[in-house]
Description:
Layout: H1 2-54
Amino acid sequence: MQGNRYNKIRGKKKIHIRLLRWSFFSRLMVLTVNITKTHLKPLFYKLFRKHLLKS
């Protein structure tokens, strides 16, 4: 019985860690997307214009 209870606790911990990791990852994704939107958009625009001017 004791082993079973231990496994249940371990399972909950694993799920909790996974959730924490996922929330952290999603936050990181949102951050990177926001940064790319603000900083990389003008860069891409410049490159795109250069490419258009070349062709």
